[in-house]
């Protein structure tokens, strides 16, 4: 590599944001220009990130596109970026969803457009940075920085209870992250390095410490993911955030939690991970079953999808902590798939919300009659969310259950029941909104999707089908990195005997 | 004992410039009449700038002047530059304020100059006597400044409160100093350091009188930095004093007093770590907790910022408590306290910020984002920075402080610190919420004066850009800390 592709992808949106910042003039003109600058910036960023996809060497497990520069000399901190098979797809997910978000907010955001677009571009920089950072402190800066734009997006452009939701989101996540900060400092202090590749290879933290460190990281990632019982910020934030905000929240921000487990908890604290596996399984199973049931009872479309996200993230944690090749690959695949599918589902809600300004399920009926294209797109993503074979959702959930079966057949059984429940609430939602007789007069006047909306959904539909029909093009990328992760984990465990939580509880 | 008086004078050149300028300006004010206020103010700013430049271009070697009363080192120079920056910026910002509020008295800038001079002397004190002199010069000027609006009941009350409580703390400090002198036989910091090192080396426990002296000394200093439980005066004085004065209080004096505290604890009492560390830990935890929880209920912005500053003093003390454990790894704590200075700078904007009318209740900030977007953006940036959210400068302050704590094994302190900072984030966010999420009831009408927007722009940029080029600031802090520890 001759030029720093990753940094370019990371910071190009920031440059775009600066451009928008200096736009002056009449309000309508500023809004128009801001929209176009944001769209082009995010499109070029996506285009550049495709180079990462194509130039990524398949079959290599280590980090690629690594860049390094001195950042904070007195702390010996470096600016180090790089991606491996685990983080690369997530980087692309972020760069893909941002232009779609800009497009989706084209007409629906009417006031403070300039600031809105700036917030989204800054958010993109921080998201890509989070996945590409290879230094503990750099990671933390990006990871935590995400809170600022997201807080503003929910609080300024959100729904009626936006203030409450924005605060809840911010304070929940901040508390978790700050504990992680102490853990990061401890790791840095103990090992003398904040270099992630070195730490992944061999952190050698004392087993007694690992339990505490693991818990501190867990506090952050579990809130972010979110896991039951710290998931309660998510339905609030989703419901109140503007459509594009929910898309980014569900599509990318939740993945930071899963990514964190894979990048930090499992490789750096193997004994801690081993110790807490039963706890994670327990929480995940509760999440899958309980939140699915909660989703079934929702009256608000966004809330329903929000709860379904919690359930799907339960699959992710089961997959990660089954700690074998299939489970982790499944979890990663599920994260990608959920990133696309839930983002699309929120966009789908956004389409009718822009027209009718309500998300109440009971207000809708029989949309199939006058919105056929909409119904079709809705169906694709609904089925993908349910996990129908041929869609991306199936591959992820299947792999997770295969992985979980190797860890414990009971866990696999309970998790699989989530798939059934998932089908129930999604089909129930679809039936109420799309089928039935169209009687309400205001619904009859609704127009089908316009070209801009179709343009937003086209790549997502294609992606869902591609991932479902030929998952190998994604699994090939993850495979080697995941294999290395599992191998290192097993070696680390063999070296030291660890106490087990189950033994502790049982005896 | 021979001293080269020429060399001594050269060493105190920055202080000399300030002292002469202050006296000269006093004369100009007295004989020049009432209309010279603006000129006196700008000349004071120039004096501060000249003094800062002299410090910046001085070599920063460790040198002692006036038979060990006065010390110059890079730690002192660094802190002095911070103090001068803070003082200069507040003076610039107060220009419009004093005109509007009928405070256009030439004594105001002159008193600020004397206070600044006092701070520089505090930072450079190398003896308990010169420490007290610097402290009193600063405090006496500030007592008057706090009450400078004679007609205002609140201002007079603030001045009186400040005076009575400040005098009490000075008394305690003096009492402590006399006890230390009585039991150690010297007031010089170098002498004290030798005595205590020998004592520790011989394995003797310090006598009970000495400990009491140390405690009194600490109490007096904690008073000056408004650490819990000696914080009571801060909210009242901040609220009552004229806004320009509050801004000044928040900037320089805290830095100077903290520098003094660091020097006293690490230089002469450096070998008595075990005696004072627990005090600092307790004070720090109490300050962080009180700062975070008490600020939640505040509706007056000056009181809110007063509690916020109490909390931040707590964080700075974490650094101090941690920096004591092991000689080898001490260098970070100063850097930790450093962005604290940025924080103080914030407060000065906030207090000054909406010049259209006086902002008192935080509710008045409602809807600022639509009427004054630039200002709202600035305040928001500072609020996030204060809350310690990366990538803003405030985050790095916390990073250094907590790193220092973790390195010293003070895990409990670090965890308490992060938890209180999450609580504190709530009220910083509340201000952002008011500005951005709520609609304005009435708009701020007046535009911001040019010099105010310049200061605001520069400091905002500093907070935002810090993540990209932290080098100059941190290396300065490191050199400074190294000179304090690394003897």
Strand content of chain A: under 5%
Most strands sheet of chain A: 2 strands, antiparallel
Backbone CA Rg of chain B? 22 Å
Which outline of chain A best applies?
globular
**Relative helix content of chain A:** over 70%
Quick check: average pLDDT of chain A? 85
- What overall geometry of chain B do the principal axes of the alpha carbons give? globular
Low-pLDDT segments, ≥5 res of chain B: 325-358
Helix content of chain B: over 70%
* Count of runs of 4 or more consecutive helical residues of chain A: 21
User: What separation lies between the terminal Cα atoms of chain B?
Assistant: 24 Å
| Quaternary class | heterodimer
Biggest sheet record of chain B: 2 strands, antiparallel
Total helical segments of chain B: 21
- Beta-strand residue fraction of chain B: under 5%
Classify the secondary structure makeup of chain A into a structural class. Answer: mainly alpha
Q: What order do the helices and strands of chain B follow?
A: HHHEEHHHHHHHHHHHHHHHHHH
Structural class determined from secondary elements of chain B:
mainly alpha
Structural description of this entry:
The complex is a heterodimer of chains A (507) and B (487). In chain A, helix 2 runs antiparallel to helix 3 and helix 3 packs antiparallel against helix 11 (243-268). Chain A is 75% helix and 3% strand. Chain A has 21 helices and two strands. Chain A is globular. In chain A, a hairpin with a 4-residue loop joins strand 1 (64-72) and strand 2. Chain A has helices spanning 5-21, 27-55, 88-104, 113-132, 136-145, 147-157, 162-191, 196-201, 207-224, 233-240, 243-268, 270-296, 301-321, 325-356, 372-386, 392-407, 409-434, 441-444, 451-469, 472-495, 501-506, and strands at 64-72, 77-83. The mean pLDDT of chain A is 85. By secondary structure, chain B is mainly alpha-helical. Chain B is built from 21 helices and two strands. Chain B has a two-stranded antiparallel ribbon with strand order 1-2. In chain B, helix 3 runs parallel beside helix 5, helix 4 packs across helix 21 (471-485) and helix 5 packs parallel to helix 11 (243-266). At the A-B interface, helix 5, helix 6 and helix 7 of A face helix 18, helix 19 and helix 21 of B.
């Amino acid at each position: 590599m001759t030029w720093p592709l990753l940094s370019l992808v990371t910071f190009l949106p920031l440059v775009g944001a600066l451009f928008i910042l200096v736009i002056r003039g009449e309000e309508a003109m500023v809004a128009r220009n801001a929209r176009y600058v944001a769209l082009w910036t995010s499109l070029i960023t996506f285009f550049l990130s495709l180079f990462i996809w194509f130039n990524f060497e398949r079959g290599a497990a280590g980090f690629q596109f690594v860049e390094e520069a001195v950042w904070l000399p007195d702390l010996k901190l470096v600016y180090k970026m790089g991606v491996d098979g685990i983080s690369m797809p997530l980087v692309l997910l972020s760069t893909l969803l941002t232009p779609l978000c800009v497009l989706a907010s084209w007409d629906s955001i009417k006031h403070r457009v300039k600031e809105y677009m700036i917030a989204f571009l800054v958010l993109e920089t921080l998201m890509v940075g989070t996945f590409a950072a290879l230094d503990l402190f750099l990671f933390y800066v990006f990871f935590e920085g995400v809170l600022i734009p997201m807080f503003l997006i929910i609080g300024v452009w959100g729904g009626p209870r936006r203030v409450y939701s924005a605060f809840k989101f911010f304070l929940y996540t901040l508390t978790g992250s700050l504990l992680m900060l102490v853990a990061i400092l401890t790791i840095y202090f103990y090992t003398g390095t904040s270099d992630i590749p070195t730490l992944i290879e061999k952190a050698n933290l004392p087993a007694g410490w690992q339990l505490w460190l693991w818990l501190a990281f867990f506090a952050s990632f579990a809130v972010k993911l979110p896991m039951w019982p710290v998931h309660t910020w998510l339905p609030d934030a989703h419901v109140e955030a503007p459509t594009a905000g929910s898309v980014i929240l569900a599509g990318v921000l939740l993945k930071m939690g899963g990514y964190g487990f894979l990048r930090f908890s499992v490789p750096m604290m193997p004994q801690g991970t081993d110790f807490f596996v039963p706890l994670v399984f327990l929480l995940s199973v509760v999440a899958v079953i309980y939140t699915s049931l909660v989703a079934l009872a929702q009256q608000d479309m966004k809330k329903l999808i929000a709860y379904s996200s919690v359930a799907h993230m339960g699959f992710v944690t089961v997959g990660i902590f089954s700690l074998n090749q299939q489970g982790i690959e499944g979890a990663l695949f599920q994260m990608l798939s959920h990133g696309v599918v839930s983002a699309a589902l929120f966009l789908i809600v956004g389409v009718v919300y822009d027209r009718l300004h309500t998300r109440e399920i009971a207000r809708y009926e029989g949309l199939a009659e006058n919105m056929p294209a909409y119904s079709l797109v809705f169906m694709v993503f609904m089925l993908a969310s349910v996990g129908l074979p041929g869609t991306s959702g199936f591959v992820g959930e299947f792999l997770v259950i295969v992985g979980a079966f190797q860890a414990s057949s009971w866990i696999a059984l309970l998790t699989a029941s989530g798939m059934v429940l998932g089908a129930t609430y999604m089909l129930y939602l679809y039936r109420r909104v799309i089928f039935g007789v169209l009687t309400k007069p205001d619904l009859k006047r609704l127009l089908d999707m316009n070209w801009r909306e179709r343009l937003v959904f086209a790549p997502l539909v294609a992606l869902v089908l591609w991932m479902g029909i030929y998952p190998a093009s994604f699994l090939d990328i993850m495979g080697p990195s995941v294999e290395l992760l599992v191998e290192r984990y097993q070696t680390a465990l063999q070296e030291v005997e660890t106490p087990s939580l189950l033994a502790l509880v049982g005896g | 004992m021979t001293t080269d008086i020429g060399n001594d004078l050269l060493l105190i050149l920055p202080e000399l410039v300030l002292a002469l300028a202050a006296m000269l300006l006093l004369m100009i004010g007295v004989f020049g009449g009432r209309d010279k206020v603006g000129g006196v103010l700008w000349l004071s700013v120039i004096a501060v700038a000249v003094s800062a430049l002299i410090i910046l271009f001085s070599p920063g070697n460790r040198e002692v002047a006036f038979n060990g009363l006065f010390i110059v080192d890079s730690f002192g120079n660094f802190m002095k530059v911070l103090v001068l920056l803070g003082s200069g910026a507040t003076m610039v910002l107060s220009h419009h304020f004093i005109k509007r509020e009928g405070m256009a008295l030439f004594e105001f800038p002159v008193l600020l100059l004397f206070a600044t001079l006092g701070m520089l002397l505090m930072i450079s004190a190398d003896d308990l006597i010169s420490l007290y002199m610097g402290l009193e010069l600063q405090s006496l000027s500030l007592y008057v400044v706090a009450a400078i609006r004679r007609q205002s009941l609140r201002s007079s009350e603030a001045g009186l409160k400040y005076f009575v409580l400040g005098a009490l703390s000075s008394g305690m400090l003096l009492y402590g100093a006399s006890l230390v002198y009585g039991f150690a036989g010297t007031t010089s910091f170098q002498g004290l350091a030798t005595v205590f090192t020998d004592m520790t080396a011989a394995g003797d426990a310090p006598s009970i009188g000495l400990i009491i002296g140390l405690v009194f000394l600490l109490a007096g200093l904690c008073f000056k930095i408004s650490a819990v439980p000696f914080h009571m005066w801060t909210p009242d004085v901040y609220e009552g004093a004229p806004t320009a004065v509050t801004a000044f209080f928040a900037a320089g004096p805290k830095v100077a007093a903290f520098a003094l505290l660091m020097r006293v604890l690490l230089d002469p009492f450096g070998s008595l770590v075990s005696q004072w560390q627990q005090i600092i830990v307790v004070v720090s935890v109490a300050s962080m907790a009180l700062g975070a929880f008490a600020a939640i209920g505040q509706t007056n912005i000056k009181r809110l910022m007063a509690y916020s500053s109490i909390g931040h003093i707590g964080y700075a003390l974490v650094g101090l408590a941690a920096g004591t454990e092991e000689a080898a790894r001490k260098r970070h704590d100063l850097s930790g306290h450093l962005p604290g200075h940025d924080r103080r700078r914030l407060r000065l904007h906030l207090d000054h910020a909406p010049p259209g009318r006086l902002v008192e209740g935080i509710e008045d900030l409602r809807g600022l984002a639509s009427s004054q977007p630039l200002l709202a953006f600035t305040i928001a940036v500072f609020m996030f920075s204060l809350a310690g959210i990366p990538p803003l400068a405030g985050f790095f302050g916390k990073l250094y402080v907590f790193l220092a704590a973790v390195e010293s094994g003070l895990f409990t302190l670090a965890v308490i610190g992060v938890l209180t900072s999450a609580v504190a984030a709530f009220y910083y966010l509340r201000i952002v919420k008011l500005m951005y999420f709520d609609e304005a009831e009435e708009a701020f009408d007046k535009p911001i004066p040019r010099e105010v927007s310049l200061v605001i722009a520069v400091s905002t940029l500093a907070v935002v850009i810090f993540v990209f080029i932290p080098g100059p600031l941190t290396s300065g802090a490191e050199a400074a800390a190294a000179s304090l520890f690394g003897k």
